[in-house]
Predict the 3D structure of the following.
Amino acid sequence: MVDRPVAMGRITGLFGISGWVKVYSFTDPIDNLIDYSPWLLGNDLGERALLDARRQGKTLIAQLTAEDGQAICSRDAAAGLVGADITVDRSQMPPLPKDQYYWCDLIGSAVVNRQRVQLGRVVNMLETGAHDVLVLEGERERLIPFAPGQTVDHVDPDLGRIDVDWPDDA
């Protein structure tokens, strides 16, 4: 896999008066985000070390370092981080078992059916009760269940290609 930043969450607010922030995690379970450090913050806020964090209801709360490497200890100093996306280097993510994939490795892949018709590119993924769903953008938007062995014949994240058993008129 190419080493690239992967969106893992977003700083959504402030927590208390001691410089802690509220974090919405994209990971499942949400506290898996705590396993990654440093965090790369969007809006050109740079790399920040995670000093402490814990689950707080349906979000996380975290204490990060400032640009100088010292702990952020005031609400005012933390306020500039609100709204920043949290990314981590793809290389920090643990390898998965065979035939399991991170969504970030599927997004951008070309989806081709058995008749060799390109149906579009994966622009998003949806989580449903039964299967994850590929959201394709192409000549039109398509939703295809990500069901290996059923609708999905083969996945090659290195080539950026997913082969599917799906008609081009569906």
User: Anything to note?
Assistant: Residues 103-164 form a domain with the SH3 type barrels. fold (CATH 2.30.30.240).
